[in-house]
Design goal:
360 residues; alpha/beta; 12 strands; globular
């Protein structure tokens, strides 16, 4: 055990050196999120973007085409992926026109969806316009899922969509994402039996975050025991060879790092990941609160490459530098203040910290 801790400490030290001395100075765009619309046919209690009224008009089809032309000219199409989301992206009326154009230009792309609109015919069209990956949200057993997502019958429709995607045999990865909260954590074992019965490429399990609509439901936030139970579950299934992993959200301490996901903690916001919102606003991770501080520009007046290369300073330093408690913590070098999406920029403090929950 001591040897494993030494190896992890060495890896995390090397990673921290790389982030501080290289990545913050020379960020690498790996994922560009396109929020095609804030329209949604669900009303999920934990929605990070709230899917409320849009501040400004949605980008038009012509604007998306011009944007994709610009991105190709500035970055090429290799080495990164377009990540399509919403709202429910398939409610965008020009969805297939936009994605067909991206495919013609040579972009790799994937999507996050509730899958309720994916019939066999739609699955086939998604293959035709080049979708390579998809992550579908399933947040509990049928009754729980439908209630949490505010969509009667949503579970059955989503599962039907997943089966249609799998049956198409055309996608690099079909994934399910589950958001665990204090209520549905007791359904983990039952959900595993369901997921194990599907021909999924992976099951991604994340915890409820104190962002967006979830702020209105503090009763559903995970307890310390919930967190410990969740990570023990993920590690056990991974040790058994099942393709289950935790999301990219937080630093988990030496014991769990590189155990519940493939590698070590890095907040991708603004260094590997950028986003373009439905109204053209440019930001880092879409889960970060949308404020004048966090929004870095708008593609209607700014060239994305200029924003990526010359702004985003907010996301290219350790958050721990902004908080005395974090700065004094012995884990600060590896945690770096944790994730931007769960950082309170008004108080300059983390809203999520696993110290004294998962590690000391």
């Amino acid at each position: 055990m001591r040897r494993i801790e030494e190896i992890k400490t060495a890896h995390l030290s090397q990673l921290s050196d790389y982030i501080e001395n290289d990545l913050y100075k020379r960020p690498r765009l790996r994922h560009l999120f396109l929020e095609l619309t804030l329209q949604c046919n669900a009303h999920c209690f934990h929605c990070g973007s709230n899917c409320t009224e849009l501040a400004g008009e949605e980008l038009s089809l012509d604007e998306y085409k011009a944007l994709l032309d610009q991105i190709k000219a500035d970055f090429g199409t290799k080495g990164f992926m377009l990540c399509v989301t919403g709202g429910e992206p398939m409610l965008r009326k020009e969805f297939f026109d936009i994605m067909a154009y991206a495919h013609e230009l040579g972009f790799a792309w994937g999507m996050t969806s509730n899958a309720t609109l994916i019939t066999k015919e739609v699955a086939h069209r998604l293959a035709e316009v080049g979708m390579s990956t998809i992550s579908v949200s399933i947040d509990g057993l049928p009754e729980t899922h439908d209630e949490l997502r505010g969509m009667p019958g949503g579970y059955e429709r989503a599962m039907r969509g997943i089966r249609n995607l799998i049956d198409e045999h055309a996608f690099q990865a079909v994934q399910v994402t589950t958001v665990i909260n204090h209520r549905n954590i007791d359904q983990l074992d039952a959900l595993f039996e369901i997921m194990d019965g599907l021909d999924l490429d992976s099951w991604r399990v994340i915890n409820l975050e104190p962002i967006g609509r979830a702020l209105q439901r503090p009763d559903l936030m995970c307890t310390k025991e919930d967190y410990r139970r969740l990570f023990a579950f993920i590690r056990e299934k991974r040790q058994q060879g099942y393709p289950l992993e935790y999301g990219c959200s937080h630093y988990l301490g030496l014991d769990l790092e590189a155990e519940v996901r493939e590698w070590y903690w890095v907040c991708n916001a603004g260094v590997y990941t950028a986003s373009i919102m439905a109204n053209g606003d440019i930001a880092a991770c879409l889960d970060i609160e949308r404020t004048p501080l966090t929004v870095q520009g708008n593609i209607r007046k700014d060239r994305f490459k200029d924003v990526w290369e010359n702004r985003f300073e907010l996301f290219r330093h350790d958050l721990s530098d902004l908080n005395e408690t974090c700065r004094a913590c012995k884990h600060a070098r590896f945690c770096r203040g944790d994730a931007h999406h769960s950082w309170n920029y008004e108080k300059n403090e983390p809203m999520v910290c696993f110290k004294d929950i998962l590690f000391e």
